[in-house]
Protein 1
Amino acid sequence: MLRPALSQLARRHFNRFRRSSMISSDSVQVTLGGLQVSVLIATFIYAISCFQAFLYWRSRFNDRLPLRILVWVVWLFETAHTTCFWIYIFTITVKYYGQPEEIDRRHWSLDASLAFHGLINCCVQSYYSWRVYVISGRMLIPILCWISLTLECFGAITDAVILYAIGPVAFTANWNLLPTLLITVDLSVGVVNTTSLCYYLYTRKTGVKS
């Protein structure tokens, strides 16, 4: 749940850095520092997810094959997502050091990270929606969540393609609504899944009639 929030934070710092490149060097330093800190924290969380994946592999749970495949697919997406962010940070802060105007140019690594973020969230939240169905025996909430996640996944890929095609300047000016909608769907599905799981687990534990 933390990685999507950090990804959104990193993208907000990216937009601030792009605007601040035309304002002052002090603003650039502050916003770029925020972007670097966000990526460092996200990398730390990625390291934790790697450790969890290792423990899962070592424990050899008797889970069904689709679930085991899902674990490793999510880990691969997480690896690609984190790698893209580090490539972008290296490009801006090392390869083009001292050239703030570079932020206005398209970079495939940043664009690809948006697509991987959508894929990660779709996989993880789809599994939680499945757990809601298993616990509750009701399909309405999971179906609504799966539809929303499918739209978010395709929306994230579309977001990445458009950003790469037209560049960050035109994207920020004309396509701000799309990432806003994606973030809204992302958070909404997370809240619905979390609330539903808490409710159904509570009613099953206490014997309260649902």
Protein 2
Amino acid sequence: MQEVRVNKTVGAGLVFIAFAIAFAFGALQLDLGTLSQLGPGYFPFAMAMLLLILGVVSLVEGLRKPDVSTVTIPWRPIIMIVVALLFFGSTIRGLGLMPTLFLTIFAAAMADKRNTLLSATCLSAVMSVFSWLVFKVGLGAVVPTFGPWLVSY
């Protein structure tokens, strides 16, 4: 693993600022409205501004009090979770809810070295069934349980 010297408070501040800017731009695509008639973009924009303030405070605090430490970047979990999310987004319509959730949760669970194949499989099965109950049965989501790639018509 690669070691990097970093000030964690400065890093957190920069991440907060980046997310705040992204969410602010997203909120500006919606109507902000006025103070008496709030639009759908007002609350997300206000939260983005609060996150921006928190980020600036963290950044300034980190720069004022240098606390540089060595951090090992955990590449395996980062890559596994990013790949799992990309897999989910690209296969949910073709595979359907259950198989996509199972494989996504399994890949994310295997990102942690402490998980075994059995624990990741059990976690994937339980979470997939729970998600199916919540989203498909409870909320009536329109995503097919098993998609067209698995079910022939």
Protein 3
Amino acid sequence: MTCRDKLVNQEVLEALLDDYLRHKTLPATYKNYLLRLIEGQVNILVHNLLQKIEDERRGLITAVDGEIFQPDR
């Protein structure tokens, strides 16, 4: 699955949950909390995907332990 597909899936999920919560009888503060939580997760995903794209563009690879190194060319 490409980064774009992951982002689209996350945005679709956010929209579906947003629609579901708008029709659910829950306290407004709880709805707002859940919507902010979902939005925060999407923002984190977008940030991580953009960072991954930038790293790949620059030719960097992130190791499992988080160490970044440049491969031999």
